[in-house]
Structures
1.
Amino acid sequence: MSSPVFLSDMLFSQGFGTRRICHGLVQQGLVKIDTGQGLLVHEQTDLMIEPYSGMPFMVQGVLWKYHAKAYVLLHKPAGTECSHKPSAWPSVYSLLPTPLRQRPAKTGLQGVQAVGRLDQDTTGMLLLSDDGQFIHRMSSPKHHVPKVYELATEDALDETVVKKLLQGVVLNDDPSPVKAASCSLVGSHQMQLTLTEGKYHQVKRMLAATGHKVVQLHRSRIGELVLGEQLQPGEWRWLSADELSVLTRKQ
């Protein structure tokens, strides 16, 4: 249970606008909260409440749930950039509702931030959060969080390529070899590759080092969390408490 706060302050923490806007939403009777008898407008005053994780509330007819920190899973579609200021393609952040993009932060950037980036043509699992410690935990190579990719190449693959990737290849800007944590062929032109670090364009550059061009790339898993088929490209959902626990436990 959280400490008591004014309803407008709770709305502000959840990204519903400035404090003035949030106070106005309450005064206009546009917010409903869980009173134990369903979602009701108690009164059009800024009452004190004790928000709890998952607490339902409604703003302008839209149902939400309270989260002290945001932990989100997005199925990134192709043709989107992991940037707040995209250069040529729509931003992945445009796929999220406004409150997730407006959640206040102590840092310069508002809202949830992507945990690492995927290229504009890469699809699959993308985590986003406003919890800096979580983002660092999931992004830092020190923690060796495995990320699984499904890829397809222009030319046929063989076991020689698998061996090279497992032993380590040298990228064009780093003399230190990088290697896959695991690697296996799943077709003549398809491969599953697991990495525990996240260098720039790493999968594509590793395959290029073996003489192959990646033409399709999809991230299917982070840690023990599998994207699955429930989310369609462009859709998002909150992480459950159990999923968050699995992601953040020590490897």
2.
Amino acid sequence: MDYKDKVVLITGGSKGIGFACAKQFVSQGAKVIISSRTQAAIDEALTQLPYASGFSADLTHEDQASTLVAYVQQNFGSIDVLVNSAGAAKRTPVAELNPKAWGAAMDAKFFATINVLDPVIKLMAAQGEGVIINIIGSGGKVASPTHLAGGSANAALMLATAGLGNAYASAGIRVLGINPGLTETGRVKSGMEAEARFLAVSVEEATKKAVQKIPVGRMARPEEVADLVLFLASDKARYLTGTTITMDGAQTPLI
């Protein structure tokens, strides 16, 4: 997996899975650019990412996403790999859902991905190569009463991943998705708060119950998801496109 001098854009790259991906791509010699909504988060992440760069943007806004892509193109050249790890829909118990919550979930996850993916895939098509990897989430496979809105956004992204992989395969572009299950990140911790409200238990008890459902016996680690990202972005996965890989410790035994 040779990433020396490859231009890699990672949205949501200041924390969690995105940050773990950034660390590994940097270690492989890639030119890594991370994005986050706040400059403070970028500055903190860059203290641990030598030679990486950052750009602050709220990707729920199409204009800011376009500005991010233009910045990368102008300052680093053609984007070879895009990892979409930005955005996470707030987990909301079903009794608390309303149209505004459904819309917010689509903005936070679906459009935070599509707003960057759309201009990038067109640029990649013009150059005749590129890889896009969407970090989605297993909530799009199985409906959860605390994650219906976010799960719907995830399901939409899975469909977009399959469709775009099919549509752009002849242009030399590969589009892939990863559905991590529970992973040791700050996002999952906040999600457990909604789960605790739904179950009327403490956050600690909700977390314990959630982990007990994972046959492997623990949550995933961000670096384990990053391992898969680097493989999928490499030539070793050159015949994979238009598919989403579930990575949940066998919690959801679906074919």
3.
Amino acid sequence: MTVPVVPVKPGLFTINSSGSGPGAILDSFNQMVTADNPADRGSIVIVFLTGGGRMDPGIDGQVATGPPLPLLSSEITARIGGANAEILYAGGAVGLVHGGIQLNLRVPDGIMPGDQPVVVSIGGRQSQPGVTLRVK
């Protein structure tokens, strides 16, 4: 059997574990962002994903305890509601196995309220479509 391997293939975690729908995204109070707890525009949210490629430092299979926490080695961008989201942190998450990634993003001010698409690009490869963030 041949199995293709790529250096980067970002995949956002979702609340229902299907890979689409509301993202497994926390607000700055570590509460899940949901329809009943939408994120404010301009606030910071914490997005979780995998498939970010090489991290430095990082040893596969070990739990990130930090400091230092491993940081992504590839170029990364994020968009919420079609607008660029400021990336405040992109790297390992304390308590997750290396390869689990935490992104701290600022929700863009100019986007509309409601369910907005979240797209992360690492090393030129985009995350799956259909992941959303509820915005107030």
